[in-house]
């Protein structure tokens, strides 16, 4: 693997059993996590793999555990401590990010082998997996959704028997792009999934992949006018769950829980993000159309980051105090941080929350009734499903099993099913967080194809239209 300033890791290797079409461990496989995280890495004997170093900004690795770089650490206020632990734990194994957890940090602490065998795929004649590398680029590694993206990538890597590189963008477009360039310089052709930091990143990344002879799917964010159909087969597809529907789900649940009256704050994601913009638009439209008694006090973009969500919530509590009746977040990572700030301020029992993602910590809080049943609305989808769908679609193109330019438009710009979740119906989604769920989803994905796999089949496509209200 080619070293760069933004990443430098030792591959995490597995043994190499003979490959077949039976359900057994895939091999050979190696996984690297590459980023500038601001955390030092120490070897842990119980972990199945370990990074050699994280970046040029971290101090040299030492011998056991994982600790934050003291030069980059924040003040140890109550809002940030759980999210710090969550980030530190990522330097262990990346699988099972969606195991049961008592606090946000335990989302990562529970990582380990899934216990489910991986299915090894028989590649079509003429496709040499040794010429390829699977690449998954995520926005950060503090958000549980991004950790789940990594799970899906690992499951696909195992199933296909192709090594995996993980890019941690660390909330930086520059880090994402430079890290991808460095991987492409290794000479292997990429099969790539990118959860873009900003919509404007997509053209640069796609062009680099095209020049390298690879195939890429972009999830969530791209400029509306930038279409795979216009770029060519190397930009296989743009894929997402609809943001407007997500925002409407949260708005309806929050407004109903408040009896149609109250003051709320919003925590969007990254400002230059199609996903965040569409979710906010859906929330605002639902409120404007159906709940005139709900007043939006303020928006604070929080970059999909639990730590920033906690800080912004804390600042808004200082500004508005107990005037805040409800909080909507564009995803659960930010909600996890916000709820901690409200709990620290002694306000959690009187404020209602709605968000997107139904993360395991959120499920725990719903089941326990935390904060006087504070969480009232969610949406269901999983990061491991998104990355697995994206990577398998790109693999089908790379291996010649599909020709992207011959696909219907809704398979080039795709909407996958999103479900609204409440405290009344959440139990039907618990199965997708059980041990081995990512590997089982990948098995169904390979059997059914990227557009027909429950619980997230293709439901539409095109450019998502923002509501006028």
From TrEMBL:
Gene3D superfamilies assigned to the protein according to its UniProt record, in alphabetical order: 3.40.50.2300
Compositional bias per record (Low complexity), positions renumbered to this chain: 1-25, 53-64
Keyword Signal among record annotations: yes
Localization: Cell envelope
Keyword match Iron-sulfur: no
SUPFAM superfamilies per UniProt: Periplasmic binding protein-like I
InterPro entries (alphabetical): Peripla_BP_I, SBP_2_dom
One Gene Ontology cellular component annotation held by this UniProt entry: cell envelope
Keywords assigned by UniProt, alphabetized: Signal
Stretches assigned to the Periplasmic binding protein domain: 136-388
Region (Disordered): 1-36, 53-81
Main location: other
GO molecular function list: carbohydrate binding
Family: Belongs to the bacterial solute-binding protein 2 family.
Name of the protein described by the UniProt record: Periplasmic binding protein domain-containing protein
Provenance organism: Palleronia sediminis
Lineage of origin: Bacteria, Pseudomonadati, Pseudomonadota, Alphaproteobacteria, Rhodobacterales
């Amino acid at each position: 693997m080619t070293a760069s300033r933004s990443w430098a890791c030792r591959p995490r290797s597995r043994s190499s059993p003979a490959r077949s079409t039976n359900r057994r461990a895939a091999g050979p496989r190696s996984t690297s996590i590459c980023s500038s995280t601001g955390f030092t890495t120490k070897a842990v004997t119980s972990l199945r793999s370990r990074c050699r170093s994280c970046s040029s900004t971290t101090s040299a690795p030492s011998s056991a555990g994982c600790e934050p770089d003291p030069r980059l650490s924040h003040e140890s206020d109550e809002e940030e401590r759980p999210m710090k632990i969550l980030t530190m734990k990522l330097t262990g194994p990346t699988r099972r990010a969606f195991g049961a957890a008592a606090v946000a940090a335990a989302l990562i602490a529970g990582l380990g082998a899934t216990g489910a065998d991986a299915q090894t795929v028989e590649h079509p004649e003429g496709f040499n997996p040794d010429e390829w590398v699977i690449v998954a680029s995520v926005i950060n590694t503090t958000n549980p959704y991004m950790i789940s993206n990594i799970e899906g990538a690992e499951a696909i890597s195992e199933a296909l028997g192709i090594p995996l590189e993980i890019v941690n963008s660390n909330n930086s477009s520059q880090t994402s792009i430079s890290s991808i360039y460095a991987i492409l310089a290794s000479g292997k052709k990429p099969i790539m999934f990118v959860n873009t930091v900003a919509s404007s990143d997509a053209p640069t990344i796609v062009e680099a992949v095209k020049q390298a002879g690879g195939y890429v799917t972009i999830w969530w964010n791209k400029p509306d006018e930038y279409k795979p159909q216009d770029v060519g087969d190397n930009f296989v597809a743009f894929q997402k769950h609809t943001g407007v529907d997500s925002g409407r789900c949260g708005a309806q649940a929050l407004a109903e829980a408040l009896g149609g009256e109250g003051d709320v704050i919003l925590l969007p994601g990254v400002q230059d993000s199609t996903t965040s913009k569409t979710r906010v638009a859906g929330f605002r439209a639902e409120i404007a159309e159906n709940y005139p008694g709900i007043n939006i006090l303020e928006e604070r973009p929080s970059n999909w980051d639990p730590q920033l969500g906690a800080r912004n919530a804390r600042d808004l509590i200082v500004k508005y105090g107990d005037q805040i009746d409800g909080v909507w977040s564009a995803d659960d990572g930010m909600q996890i941080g916000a709820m901690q700030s409200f709990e620290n301020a002694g306000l959690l029992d009187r404020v209602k929350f709605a968000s997107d993602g139904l993360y395991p910590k959120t499920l725990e809080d719903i089941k326990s009734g935390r904060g006087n049943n504070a969480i009232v609305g969610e949406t269901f989808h999983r990061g491991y499903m998104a990355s697995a769908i994206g990577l398998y679609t790109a693999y089908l193109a790379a291996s010649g099993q599909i020709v992207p330019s011959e696909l219907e438009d809704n398979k080039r710009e795709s909407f996958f099913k999103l479900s609204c979740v409440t405290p009344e119906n959440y139990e039907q989604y618990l199965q997708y967080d059980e041990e081995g769920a990512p590997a089982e989803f990948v098995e169904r994905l390979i059997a059914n194809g990227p557009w027909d796999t429950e619980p997230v089949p293709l439901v539409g496509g095109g450019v998502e239209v923002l509501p006028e209200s």
